[in-house]
């Protein structure tokens, strides 16, 4: 917790598409071209089969290659082995292929692909290449923004591979899954803008689910979140993830997220 | 003698006309952006516009997402730079009104689509090409201007403008 507080206090945050900037999923929109976004995501989840909490630290940098394409690199660090341990990393690319914008509204679609590697032990049926499994994921995202409300949904295919060098993916588990989510974000404050310096407050709720394709085992989680945006530049998210239903083994389904986000605009002119 | 005086007058007039040639320049651009409602999105556009060395100042109305861009003297910008910048931020232009020296409208990339007369020194116009108006608006305008052969070509190199003043 002390480490968490330390990072919380030392890093200020920022980002771009507030109502759409969901905590656990991505919208169809990208970061601006030539801009670099730095995100420090931290989570602490309650262990189900042993006492205590685990802590995950996921630093992430995202770069806007052009108006339609962004790339991201992430690192996964956790305390599951009782000290901070670099477990793996990830690269992803997202391409926005459809934009239908109007005054104060838009509908956008994007496709993405991600590859992750991880050397930690495999300890659950849930497939999660963001911090647990080696593997890849590919999917599409659709996002609708209507005034102050953003609604986003995605569908993806995720496949787990061996966590090399020591932990091959167990034969008795289904190694690929379908992921789906439905997310809502609403700008609550301010009702009327007066300047860039105003703090914005967004409320979000995300439903995140997975089905293992081989055996139909599934889970569905709800993630309510509150998001603060400072100076139209810095972003802080606080979220809680709660399992609603599950028919699969998950080692730590419930817990908290803390996100700090900062964007460096216009790296080159 | 009279003829020589006349000739002198004509020559000096020509010289004056020649030397008074200046770059046809945009002095101000009023951009309304589409596809956003959050102040951080507006800021992304604000930062993109401010990255232009020709820009003196950007004023933003966050409630309407309107950006009023004041430009430095003797710049050689054309409307496309604003479209590029807004799109780089991840958004689109809903309308673009430009204030410029009046001689600009007789210059090459500009095609005037209405009969309105521009002001003597300064002119205000709206760019009505695809990408400079909303998609809905463009559909309507395509019908209105179907007889303007260059308009329907959607070329990025020319700008169809509607004089406002």
In short:
Chain A is mostly beta strands. Chain A has 1 helix and 12 strands. Chain A has one domain (2-264): Beta Barrel (Porin).
Main sheet characteristics of chain A: 12 strands, antiparallel, barrel
Compute the gyration radius of chain A: what is it?
18 Å
Along the chain, the helix and strand elements of chain B come as HEHEEHEEEHHE
State the domain count of chain A: 1
User: How would you describe the oligomerization state of the chains in this entry?
Assistant: heterodimer
According to CATH, what is the topology of chain A? Answer: Porin
Give the strand content of chain A.
Answer: over 45%
Q: CATH top level of chain A?
A: Mainly Beta
Looking at CATH, the homologous superfamily of chain A is monomeric porin ompg
User: What average pLDDT do the residues of chain B reach?
Assistant: 86
Q: How helical, in percent, are the residues of chain A?
A: under 10%
Quickly give the CATH architecture of chain B.
2-Layer Sandwich
Q: Characterize the main sheet of chain B.
A: 7 strands, mixed
Describe the structure in your own words.
- The complex is a heterodimer of chains A (269) and B (165).
- Chain A is built from one helix and twelve strands; from the N terminus they run H-E-E-E-E-E-E-E-E-E-E-E-E.
- Chain A has 269 residues and is mainly beta.
- Chain A has a twelve-stranded antiparallel beta barrel with strand order 1-2-3-4-5-6-7-8-9-10-11-12.
- In chain A, a hairpin with a 5-residue loop joins strand 9 and strand 10.
- Chain A is globular, with a radius of gyration of 18 Å.
- Chain A starts with a helix and ends in a 5-residue tail after the last strand.
- In chain B, a hairpin with a 4-residue loop joins strand 2 and strand 3.
- Chain B is globular and about 70 Å long.
- The N and C termini of chain B lie far apart (45 Å).
- At the A-B interface, strand 4 of A face helix 2 of B.
